[in-house]
Each structure stands twice: as C-alpha cells, then as structure tokens.
Design goal:
A: alpha/beta; FAD/NAD(P)-binding domain; Enolase-like, domain 1; 7 domains; B: mainly beta; Rieske Iron-sulfur Protein; three-stranded antiparallel sheet; 10 strands; disordered C terminus; binds flavin-adenine dinucleotide; binds protoporphyrin IX containing FE; binds iron/sulfur cluster; binds FE2/S2 (inorganic) cluster
C-alpha cells in the first residue's frame, strides 16, 4: 500500500514540494491537499500585475483543478485544517473531513500583519495576500475614489501602484522617512519616491497611524499628529507574520515560525514544514526563492532520496512595478570595513551601488538599470574576489566581455545559478532545454521551462543564454535568424530581395535556400510584406501568406466571428454614415457596436459569410475599409482644432483628414497610428502615436515613435515645421523609411530605439534630397495600395472562396 | 465506418489554403498543401476552439489563427510543446474531385463543446 501524504496549505511552497516529489517519486504517496482558499494553486507574486490590470487570474494559475485530478491527488479546496491528532496521525478540517497521514506537510504561509489600532476590523480594511484581497480592491476601485496604503515596502508599493492603475487616488503612508528601507539605501529610495510621485502616487512619510474611522465601513484615517484623510479603502502592508496558529495549537514547537531542521522536519519528525510559515536556523523568509530550495530538499527527504540539506538562502528583491527597474540584494548599508562603489547617472535615472568588503560583494542596490542584478547576486553568493575588475564592475558584465577580458558573461554563471526568480528556474535547466529541445526563440524557452514567463524581469538574461547556447550548437548567427526556416536575419533577407531583385516567395525560397519548401506561419507574412513593400508594382500580394485578418479584411474574434470597422476620415462622420451603420447592424443582427480608441465605430460579431454583404452596404453609403485589422495605416485621430475649439491654433481636423487620405491603404511592418492635436493640450494624444502632429501658433511639431500598447513610449520630437505641405512630405518620408527599414512586426518605437533618433533625423530632416526620394517612393507605392479591399470583395470579384463554405453535407 | 461525400474539385481550394465543409456535426476544414495533397480536420483548434480553416498552411502543417498553435494535418496532433489533437478525416482525390469520409453518425461527437 502506498503511504499517505497530507499537505496543509495549497500555496506556492507546499505545491512546489508536491511537484518536486511527483517528478522524483511519482508512485510513493497517496497525496491529499487541503487549501483554505477556494482555488487551485496560483502564483501569488503575480497578484500585483493582476491588480494593475496587466494579467488575469487565469494567467496566474499554476495548477488548475484538473491538474490535481489527472495526477490522482485528492484536493479539498476552501477547507481549513483546524485539528491535527498527532497520535492518531489524522488531520481534521473545519467541516469535519478527516484524513489520515503517514507524513504531514505544513505549508500554511503567512498572514498580513494588521496594526493593533482602533477600527482595524472595519469593512474596507484589508491586507494584500490573496485573490480575495485583490477582488476586494478591484471592487473598491470600481465604486470608490480614494485609497490609503499603510506601509511603504515592496508589497505596499505594488498595491499602491495597482490601485492607481485602477483609477484610484492613492496615498501611501510610511512610518519612516525612506521607502523600502529594508532593501534600499536613502538615495535609491528617494529616486523611487520621486518617480512614483511623478506617476501620481502621494506619500505621507514619517506618519504614524492612530486610528481608522468609520461606522459601517472605513471612511478616514487619523494620524498621531492630528491629520485626518478620507478614504474608501485601507490596505495594510506593514509586514507579514508566519501562520503558525495550527502548529502551535497541536504542540509542534514554534518560535516566530514553525522551527525546522535542515531536512525541513519539525520537532515531530513525521511532520514537515516549508515556506513562509517556517523558521530555519533562526531565519524566516518572505520571498519565493528560498521556498524553491526548501521544496527540493523536503521532496528529496520525503522520497527517501539521500540527505539533501537546506542551509538557508541569501535573497534578492525586485519591485514589480511596470516601468521601474529596481534590484536589491544582501546588505547595502555597509558596516565596519566596508566600502561603497557607486555610479550615478541622473540624466538616465540610473543609480548603482555595490557594498564591498575585502574585494567581495556584500550587497547591491540597482535603480534604473538592473540588467546586471543577477550577476552581482552571483558574485555575492559565491564570494568571488572582484579585485581584478573592480574599476569596471559597475559597467556590468556585458562591458567585461566587450573589453576582451573574457570570463564574465551569463555563460560563466554556474549551472545552478537562478535565472528566473518567479518560477525558480536555474541556468542549467534553461541551457539544457535549449540544447536538447533545440529551442530557438524566447517563446519556446518560456513554453518549455517557464523561465521569463511570469514577471519578465529576467527576459534579458534568458535572451543572452539563448544567444550564447544556440551559438555553441551551430554556427554563431550574426543576427537572429528570421525563423526556423532559415539562417538569414530579417535585414539580410531584405537586402537580398532588393539586391537580387527577388519578386516572389518562390524565388526567395530558392535563392536563399529556405529549409522548409513553403516556409512557415512566421516567415511567410514577413516575406510577403518585404516583397510588396520593395517591389510594389511587381510583386503579387500572396493571400495565403497573410494572416487571416489581412486575408479577409476583418478582425477575427475569439469565437471565430469577425469585426468590421469602416474608415472615418480623421474621425469625422455624418448622419448618413451613422444611419448606414445602424442599418447594417440591424440587418445582420450584429451583437455589439462599439466606439474604438482610434475614433472609429466597430461592429463586432459579424459572421464570415455576411462580411461581403456588410461591406456592400457600407460601400453603398460611401465608406471603405478602415484597415483596423492590418499591419498598415490604422487611423488618424484628430481633435476639433480651430474649427471649434477656443484653444485651437491650426486646423487639426482638416490636416488629419488630409494625412489619412494620403496614407490609407499602405502596408507597414507593424500597425501605424497617427494623430493631430490642435494645440499642446494634445487632446488627440499625438505623443503616443507612431506619427503625431501637435499644432502650435507658429506651425507644427512633428513627433515620432510613440506607442500606447503594453510598453508605453512617449514620442521623440523629430522637428518643427511651418506648413501643412511640409507636414505631408515629412509624414510620407517617415512612413517610407520605416516601411523600408523597420523589421516585420517591429513597431516604430522599438525601431527608433534600435536605429536611434539621430539616424532618423539624418535621413529625413537633414537630408532634403533623401526625404524627397523617400516621399516619392511612398506615393508611387500608394498607387498600387489605395484600392478598397472591401469593394473588391463585396462584388465577389476577389477571393469569393474565402467567404463561402466549400460544401454542405448531410 | 465511413460515409463518403463528394465535396467539390481540388481547384476550389487555393494552394496553401483551406475551405470549410459544413456537416451536421460541425464544420470540417479541408486543406490543400503546396504539393497538392488534401487533408481534413475538424475546424476547431484543440486549444481554445479557434477555426483552423482560417490559419496559415505550411508544409503539412496548419497554424491556428488565434494563438499560433501548430497542428499536423495528417494526424491532427499539436506540435510540441503544445499537447492536443483535432479529429482528422480521410479525403480521397479521384479525377480531380474530392471525397470526404465522415464517420457514421453514431460514432461522431454529438455536440460541439462551447468555446472556452
Ligand atoms: C502581492 C504579493 C506579491 C509578492 N511578490 C513577491 C515577489 O515579487 N518576489 C518574491 O520572491 N516573493 C513575493 N511575494 C511573496 C511570496 O508570494 C510568498 O513568499 C510565497 O507565496 C509563500 O509561499 P507559501 O507556500 O509559504 O505561502 P502561501 O503561498 O501563502 O500558501 C499558504 C496557503 O496555505 C493556506 N492555509 C493556511 N492555513 C491553512 C489551514 N489551516 N488549512 C488549509 N490551508 C491553509 C493559505 O490559505 C494559503 O493558500 C509576494 C507576495 C504577495 C502577497
Ligand atoms: C525519552 C522518552 C521519549 C522520547 C524521546 C519519545 C520520542 C517520540 C518521538 C520522536 C515520537 C514521534 C515518532 C514518530 O512520529 O515516528 C514519539 C511518538 C509517540 N510517543 Fe513518544 N517518546 C518518549 C516517551 C514516550 C512515552 C513515555 C509515551 C507514552 C506513555 C510515548 C507515547 C508516544 C506516542 C503515543 C507517540 C505517537 C506514535 C505515533 O505517531 O504513531 N512516548 N515519541
Ligand atoms: S488639442 Fe487643443 S485645440 Fe485640440 S481640442 Fe484640445 S485644447 Fe482644443
Ligand atoms: S485556439 Fe488555436 S491556438 Fe488557441
């Protein structure tokens, strides 16, 4: 008969132990898991991105309920264990369920510490620990306006940032004068505070909370000095306490946490404990990295696999606030015999400090540039003598490699060095997976190892590993190949298309020795774009190499229906167009009609067979395709400018319409958005567009390379122009330069970061002849592009097969 | 056993393209590869039900339009690391005409599961 293992606490440490155990001894135990929370096991550290709206609950699930079922694990969710009968070796849950065990694993985590002040039990006062807390916060953000976060540590700042992203006005209250005092020195803490203030957080430093006020629900926070601020929500993030109530109650020895030995056993050797609830060699942990090590040791011991020992962990931290890079490890405030090596670059917002004693790293604080965090952490843990490269150590290990002193690249890190903290993946596991499974892309590494699949802060390291490892298997490709079908990079392929006058996919495949005779879903759309953008009059647009949206000129939705967005020049419409749209929605029973962010109207849920008919009706009312589905010019957003606005300086609407009429239909490496604002109040949000115009009294400011997507990037100012005619010329030239040199699926923002703004200026602003040539090439190619794809298809002239089933049978 | 249905001519499907055959048991996607072979799969991706007929055909594989899973046309199996399978159906090509083999009614799944 199998032995019985019972796990109390369906959280990160407990389930990691179970997963480790299943890989080394899958058949040893019958496993039963009790979890107080009503979910499968999820990645708690990603609650912060969930709160900030960057991830969904589904995306942070590690093991859903099926996972347990598939492995024969009995899971009781929503059930607290309230009793352990150690003599009978049984646990009992709140609802009376009893489970016998041979081995018991306690992984009860910790509880948020709630300040002992009046009002701390009012509704609306919560910690930040689990999905329920996040749901409470999201609900509060929907109805309330103000939030107070007590505690300026890691957790508090992540909570505050998330609530702010949800639209709340957030005040962070901290009892000391510097934020994150356990991880940051005063300089870095101040940089962080200023940055967060710029983003809209308010700080009350050195403030002591006296009481929480309210009757049915919290409504205000009162401080010792008499200040009172009103609020709809209070989040306490002042620390955590190991959750030892259960262990204590049944007489298992506890101090601050449940005391365990080096094999993770408690004083009762049949009872193990892992995670935040334990105290090991006097130390309690509040981060995940130590848990992975504990889980490994514990699983080994449960499986009776020798005598792996846990010897404690050195930890490092990162703040998961998108757009802020912060890393801290070890002791950062020095001490006797310590020296500090500091690099400050206020212009770039970078601060780096290493604390060193006898040429060995004791601690590191990095702000603004954390690429080398893992390297310093490695030096710290291994106690490496840095004497030989002390002067340059702050420039990072990339610099070491560049300067020819070989040795320090990510490849010199030990195989057991941790790369991905979120998922506990070490370097060896990644390089092994890359080599054995022949992984080539970041996504493949993510799929196979989970490394860099959570918070993403280790992406740079994983990419370096990929580059280095792939390089050692085959030839070192100078640049990343386009895809698995070729060794050539995007740029090499483009050059070949241009220089060898290749005008069809077949010729490219032949000339460049493509490995797969008809390429793949990743290279074919790219090649098709390169062909039609290089040889607009000669290359034939290959429909089968286009993603479905561009093949049927509508956006596929998750249920296989499509959305249709007619073009509205510069965001202008009129009663006749609106009536036609309303009629179409009625006639084809289109379930959702929505106004888009680009000032257009979206008809969602159109059946594929209906598309040509919908288009025919829209065409009849004078509307054409809005290309909302394409890697192409999307929309030109405008404000009302001098026509109506009392602040307007130029005719922003009119200019927007002209730009859109000039550029619609053009295909680009990725989507391309424009906007024209009538004055610097910038109502059309021109400074997050690929090409934005901000009108001023004396003319037009031209802004380029903005992006409002996942990674927000404000535009760079390209130049200032005096006339509309110039704006049009610069617009064409900029688009054409991007069309010719941007890599497929590279937005203008990363493109400009790659080539540099000064390069773009040199080609467009400073070189008039080149600008005019670019502009001419753009207009030439527009002759072949400005054909309404809807009209062609509505009449059944083009691709009729796309919209009709081949056959109906039965 | 199979019932065979005549569904059209091979040239009704573009090379590296796909068309849909509607059946009482849901849509079947019929694919034509560059080397003029024809395959049929249930038109639902094993991942989240994406319409495979709208994907991109390459080699003897299809990439789903929704999240880029890649499936083998011959077997319907997802290419690693993804795991899953779309039902596949036999297709015969006779004198340029295509015949699709569908299981007898009883052995077919009765209802399409809701899209997740
Ligand atoms: C918002 C947030 C952000 C974080 N960010 C980071 C980060 O960026 N980096 C990092 O390293 N760490 C981070 N942490 C810390 C990290 O999440 C924890 O260290 C880790 O989850 C601890 O794992 P655990 O298994 O010990 O506890 P938990 O994951 O909390 O699991 C304990 C489980 O046991 C259950 N339980 C307790 N008592 C009982 C009982 N009697 N019966 C049944 N079930 C019970 C609890 O409900 C809980 O589900 C973060 C934590 C939070 C809350
Ligand atoms: C020097 C004296 C003792 C020591 C060092 C000792 C130690 C232990 C230890 C280590 C266990 C856990 C064993 C396991 O889980 O495998 C245990 C269990 C137990 N002990 Fe003792 N013990 C002592 C005396 C006693 C006495 C005098 C009694 C009763 C009169 C007793 C009754 C029990 C019982 C009932 C259990 C639970 C058995 C089980 O889990 O199956 N012990 N003891
Ligand atoms: S951007 Fe200026 S001109 Fe345009 S609507 Fe806003 S305030 Fe008026
Ligand atoms: S539905 Fe096919 S890949 Fe997601």
């Amino acid at each position: 008969m199998k032995e019985k293992l019972v796990l109390v606490g369906n959280g990160m440490a407990g389930m990691r132990t179970v997963e480790e155990l299943l890989t080394i001894a899958p058949d040893k135990f019958d496993i039963t898991v009790f979890g107080a929370e009503p979910h499968g096991n999820y990645n708690r550290i990603l609650l912060s991105p969930v709160l900030a709206g960057e991830k969904t609950i589904d995306q942070i699930m590690i093991n859903d309920l099926d996972w347990y079922a598939e492995r024969g694990i009995t899971l009781h969710i929503g059930q607290d264990i309230v009793e352990i009968h150690r003599a009978r070796r049984e646990v009992k849950s709140a609802d009376g369920t009893v489970a016998p065990y041979d081995r018991l694993l306690l992984a009860t985590g910790s509880n948020p510490f709630i300040l002992p002040i009046p009002g701390n039990d009012l509704p609306g006062v919560i910690g930040f620990r689990d999905i329920r807390d996040v749901e409470t916060m999201l609900a509060a953000a929907r109805t309330g306006k103000n939030a107070v976060v007590i505690g300026g540590g890691l957790l508090g700042l992540e909570a505050a940032n998330g609530l702010m992203k949800q639209g709340m006005q957030v005040t962070v209250v901290h009892v000391l004068d510097t934020l994150m005092e356990r991880q940051l020195d005063p300089v870095a803490a101040d940089m962080l505070r200023v940055n967060l203030e710029e983003r809209g957080l308010r700080f009350l430093m050195g403030a002591q909370t006296a009481a929480l006020l309210g009757e049915e629900r919290v409504r205000a926070v009162r401080f010792k000095d008499g200040l009172e601020i009103s609020t709809d929500l209070v989040v306490m993030a002042v620390g955590i306490r190991p959750n030892i109530d259960l262990a204590k109650k049944v007489g298992i020895y506890c101090e601050r946490g449940i005391v365990v030995n080096d094999t993770m056993q408690t004083y009762d050797p049949k009872v193990y404990a892992v995670g935040e609830c334990v105290q090991h060699r006097g130390q309690c942990y509040g981060l995940v990295a130590p848990l992975w090590e504990q889980a490994k040791v514990c699983a080994n011991h449960l499986a009776r696999y020798g005598i792996g020992r846990y010897q404690g962990s050195v930890t490092s931290t990162k703040l998961k606030v998108t757009g802020i890079d912060l890393f801290s490890a070890g002791s950062f405030n020095g001490g006797p015999g310590c020296e500090e090596i500091v690099l400050r670059d206020p212009a770039r917002g970078v601060y780096k400090k290493l604390v060193v004693r006898e040429n060995r790293v004791q601690g590191a604080v990095l702000y603004g540039d954390t690429v080398d965090g893992s390297w310093y952490f490695q030096l710290l843990r291994e106690g490496t003598d840095i004497g030989a490269f002390r002067e340059t150590v702050l420039f990072g290990h990339a610099h070491m490699a560049d300067s020819g002193r070989d040795g320090f690249s990510v490849m010199t890190m030990a195989d057991d060095a941790e790369i991905c903290g979120c998922n506990g993946v070490c370097k060896g596991a990644i390089t092994k997976a890359i080599a054995e499974k022949k992984l080539f892309t970041l996504d493949e590494v993510r799929a196979h190892t989970k490394a860099s699949a959570s918070c993403g802060s280790c992406t740079g390291l994983v990419e370096q590993l990929l580059a280095a490892t792939v390089g050692t298997i085959g030839k070192t490709p100078a640049e990343k190949p386009m895809c698995k079908c070729t060794e050539h990079s995007h740029d090499m392929v483009r050059t070949a298309i241009r220089e060898q006058h290749l005008t069809s996919l077949a010729r490219i495949f032949e000339a460049l020795n493509w490995k797969n005779p008809d390429g793949c879903h990743s290279c074919r759309p790219a090649l098709n774009y390169y062909l039609i953008s290089t040889w607009p009059s000669e290359a034939k647009d290959d429909q089968q190499s286009r993603f479905i949206n561009e093949r049927v000129h509508a956006n596929i939705q998750k249920d296989g229906t499509y959305s249709v967005v007619p073009r509205m020049w510069g965001g202008l419409t009129n009663p006749q167009e609106l009536r036609a749209i309303a009629d179409v929605a009625d006639k084809f029973q289109i379930p959702t009609v929505k106004v888009t962010g680009g000032q257009r109207i979206d008809l969602l849920g159109v059946k594929k067979e209906d598309l040509p008919k919908v288009w025919a009706d829209l065409n009849a009312a004078g509307m054409v395709s809005g290309h909302a589905y394409g890697k192409s010019l999307r929309t030109v957003k405008t404000c009302v400018g001098t026509d109506w606005c009392r602040f307007g300086t130029q005719d922003s609407t009119g200019l927007g319409v002209k730009l859109e009429k000039m550029t619609w239909g053009s295909w680009t490496p990725h989507k391309f958005k424009m906007a024209v604002s009538g004055c610097p109040r910038n109502c059309a949000e021109a400074t997050i567009k690929d090409f934005g115009v901000v009108c001023v009294e004396s003319g037009y400011e031209i802004h380029v390379g903005g992006n409002g997507g996942i990674k927000i990037r404000g535009t760079d100012l390209l130049c200032k122009l005096a006339t509309e005619a110039e704006v049009k010329e610069y617009c064409c030239a900029f688009m054409q330069l991007y069309r010719e040199e941007g890599r497929y699926l590279e937005r203008t923002a990363p493109w400009i970061e790659r080539v540099g703004l000064s390069y773009v200026k040199s080609r467009i602003v400073e070189d008039e002849e080149n600008r005019q040539a670019l502009c001419a090439r753009f207009l030439e190619s527009q002759q072949y592009a400005q054909i309404d794809p809807w009209a062609e298809r509505a009449g059944g002239r083009v691709d009729a097969h796309e919209f009709q089933p081949l056959q109906r049978v039965g | 056993m199979y019932d065979w249905h005549e569904i059209g001519a091979i040239d009704d499907i573009p090379r590296l393209g796909s068309r849909v055959v509607q059946t009482p048991h849901g849509d079947v996607a019929v694919f034509r590869t560059a080397d003029d072979q024809v395959f049929a799969l249930r038109d639902r991706c094993p991942h989240k039900g994406g319409p495979l007929s709208q994907g991109i055909v390459h080699g003897h594989r299809i990439t789903c339009p929704l999240h880029n899973w890649v499936l083998e046309l011959e077997s319907g199996q997802a290419v690693a690391p993804d795991v899953g399978c779309a039902t596949h159906y036999p297709v015969r090509l006779e004198d340029g005409r295509l015949w699709l083999g569908l299981n007898n009614v009883l052995s077919l799944p009765t209802a399409a599961p809701a899209i997740a």
